[in-house]
Amino acid sequence: MLVLLVGAVWCIFFRSGATPAATTSPEFGIGDNRTVTVPLGSASTDTTNQIASTASQTEQKVFKITDGPVTGATFVQTFNPTTTIARFVLQENGHVFDLTLDNAGSVPRAVSNTTIPGGAQATWTENGLGMVLQYLDGATIKSVYLGLPSASTTLAANRPVHVQFLPDNITSVAASPDGKSITYLLPTTAGADGYVSKPDGTNGKKLFSLPLSQVLLSWPAQSTILAQTKSASGYPGMVFSVSAASGGVSTLLYANGVTATADRTFSRVIYQTESNSNGAASTYIHEIKTGQESGMSFDPIPEKCVWSSIATSTVYCAAPLQYVPPSYLDLWYQGAAALPDSLIMFDVAAGNTTLLATPGGGDGGDASDITGLAVSPDDHYLLFIKKGDRSLWGVRLTQ
C-alpha cells in the first residue's frame, strides 16, 4: 500500500506559477468573501495576455481558441438560440473569458477581471458558472471559489463576481455532475479526510477518511465519488468508490501503476495498469456490476479521456498513434516525455473505435500533447489544452 505524506507540492500541481499577494487564511466553513464587479460582455482590453482566436476564421476541424498559458477551460451553453461558448481562465492572471464558437466573427469577451496569478488547477462548477481555482502561495495550496456571471449578454451591464476562499492545502477537488456540490481532500496525520460542500465551500461536512495521502478525486456519477492513489510506475495503487450519500468506501481495483476514469452512470471504469515488469501499460474496461474485464483496441491514459455528454457508452480519448515507451505516464507527469496525440472516439459497449482528428495533420491545428479534455453538452465540440505552451484548442465533432 502506498502511504505517503503530502509535502511535495509539485506532485499535486506539477508546475509552479507566479506567487500572488499573501491572503488571510480562512477558517473552515467561513471563507473570505469579496465582491468584484466586471463589465459583462465587454470585449477584452487585457494587454498582458493578448487574446487571439482563429475559431471563427477557419472551418478546419481543429482550431485554436487562444494562445496560452490557460489553466483550464469548459463549455457554457445558452439557449434561444442555442449557442456554445468556450469559457477559459488564463494562468498568468486568473482572468476569465468567453468565446462563442457558433458565430463567425466572435471575439473573446471578459467575464471576470479578478486577478489571481499562477493558477495551477481549475475545477468548474454549476455548468461553468462557477470555478474553484487552485494556486500556490509559497508552500501553501490556496483554493478560491469564483461565482461567475452568466454568459448571456442580455443581462445587466455589470454583474458581481463572488469570491470566497476554501480551506488551505486542499490536495484534490472535484465537482458533482450537476455542479451544485464539490468534494475535496484535506491531509491528516493518518492520511486524508474527504469533505463535501457547496461549490463556495459553505455547508461543508466530512464524508469519509482514507489512510492514504497521495489521492486524486473525481465525481463521475451523482451518487458516487471516485478516489484513486496517484499512479507511480512499479508501485501498487488502488481505486475506490465512495458513496456521496453515506461516505461508505469500497475498493474497486488494486494494481501496479493504476489510474482510472468512470462513466456517468458508474457502470464502467476505464483503467490503465502496468502489464509486465518493464513498465509497459495496457488499458482495460471494468464492468462494475459483473466484474468482467475487457481490453481496448488502443491504450489511452484515462486522464486523457472524457465521457460523452449524451451517449453513456461513448468516450473521447487523446492517445498517440505510435509506440509508447515503458513508464511513459511517470515521464509524462514529470515533463520528461511527450508524444503527439490523436483524438479517438470509443464505444465501450460495441467495442468500436473511430479516429476523429489528428492535430497537426490535415484536420488543422498543431501537433499536440493533449491534456484537459472537455466535451460540450451537445457533443458538437471538444476542448483541449496543448501541454507545454498550454494554448487552448477546439475540435468540431460535427461540421
Strand content range:
over 45%
CATH architecture of one domain: 6 Propeller
Q: Which percent range fits the helix content?
A: under 10%
Spatial strand arrangement across the major sheet: 1-10-9-8-7
Mean pLDDT: 85
How many strands, which pairing sense, and closed or not: the largest β-sheet? 5 strands, antiparallel
Write down the overall geometry: globular
As a whole number of angstroms, the C-alpha radius of gyration is 20 Å
Find the CATH superfamily of one domain: TolB, C-terminal domain
Overall description:
The chain is mainly beta. It has a domain at about 165-270: 6 Propeller (Neuraminidase), CATH 2.120.10.30. Helix content is about 5%, strand content about 45%. It has two helices and 29 strands. The strands form seven sheets. The protein has a five-stranded antiparallel sheet, with no helix packed on it. The radius of gyration is 20 Å and the shape is globular. It starts with 8 loop residues before the first helix and ends with a strand. Residues about 1-50 and about 155 have low confidence and may be disordered.
